[in-house]
Amino acid sequence: MIRPAIHAQHALPLPQGGRDLSRLLSLEDTFETWLATGATEVGNTLHLREHALGAATLSSASLRLIYEIANRQIEVLPTREHVSARLRRPLHQRIVRHEATLSASETQSVLPQGVLVQKTVSLKMGGKLIVCSCVGDERLERQHLRDIASALALPRRASGRCTINPGSLNPVEVFGMAAGMISPFFPPQRQTRVDALVLVPWPPEWEDQQREVTVSLSLWESLLLPLVCLTSLVRCYAAVSYPHIPLIELPGKANPQAGTTSALIPRAPPAEFPLPVSEPARSASRSYRRPP
C-alpha cells in the first residue's frame, strides 16, 4: 500500500472571512433557483464568489457544469431499482458546510457518518503528471501503478520509479485549486500540465449500499452525491472541460480483467449528454487488458 504525502508546503492562505462569504454567496440559493427555472445562468453572485474566494472555491464554470451533469443524474435515478428517497433529493439539499479542511482526511472527519470522501493524488511517472481520483479509504496499490504505466504505454519499470504528490507541485498553479480541495474538476478549458486522469475503483458493494461521496465545492462546502453517479460525472466533466487529457479507468473487483483509456470521448454541451454515459464513452475508448 502506498501512502501519499500532503501538499502542506503549498497551503493557501484562507481568504479573510471566507467561510462567512461562502455562506453569504449561497450555492444552495443558486442551485435551487436553477432547479426552479431550468436555466443555469452564471449570475453576479457566482462571479463575486469566485473573485472573493479565489482558488478556495471551484470556478463559476465548474460549479455550473457539475450542477448540469449531476442534476441530470439525479433525475434519472428513479429509473433504477430500489433507490431510496434520500438518494433522490435535489442538489440544493445536498450541500454540507464545515470548517475549512486542507486534506481529504480532514474533510472525512467532518462529514456525516457513512459518507465517503473523494480524494486526489498526484503522480509523477515517466515524465508525466498524472492525477488519480480515489474514494474513501481506497489507496494506490502497486498493481494500480503498473496498470497506469501499461495504459500510458510506459516502461514497466516506470511504475517503480514514480513520485507520489511531488513536493515541487503547487496545486494552485497547476490545478487552479487550493490544497485540500483538489479534484478532477479543474476549471474548464484551463491550461494545465496534467497528462492523464485516473479513476481508482472502489468496492462495488458500496454502490449497492447506496453510499454517498463528496465533491469539494470550496474549503468550507462539500456536495454529497450518490456514489453510483461519480464515474459518469467525471466522464462527462472531462469530455467537456479537457477532452485532450486521457481518462483511465482502472480494473476493479467487479471487472478485474478490463480497463479503458477514454482519450477520445465526444465533446458536447453538458445539457446534451445522455446520462449515464457508459456506452458512448466505452465506444470511443481504447481498451486494454491487464498483462499477465
User: Mind telling me the C-alpha Rg?
Assistant: 18 Å
Q: Which consecutive residue ranges, at least 5 long each, have pLDDT under 50?
A: 3-11, 262-289
Largest sheet: 10 strands, mixed
Secondary structure: helix percent: 25-40%
H/E element order: HHHHEHEEHEHEHEEHEEHE
Q: Find the structural class using helix and strand composition.
A: alpha/beta
Distance between the termini: 21 Å
Number of helices: 10
Q: What is the overall pLDDT average?
A: 80
- The 3D shape can be described as globular
Beta strand %: 15-25%
Structure characteristics:
292 residues, 10-stranded mixed beta sheet, globular, alpha/beta, 10 helices
Task: Write up this protein.
Helices cover 31% and strands 18% of the residues. Strands 1, 2, 3, 4, 5, 6, 7, 8, 9 and 10 form a ten-stranded mixed sheet that branches. A hairpin with a 2-residue loop joins strand 6 and strand 7. Helix 4 packs across helix 9. The relative contact order is 0.17.
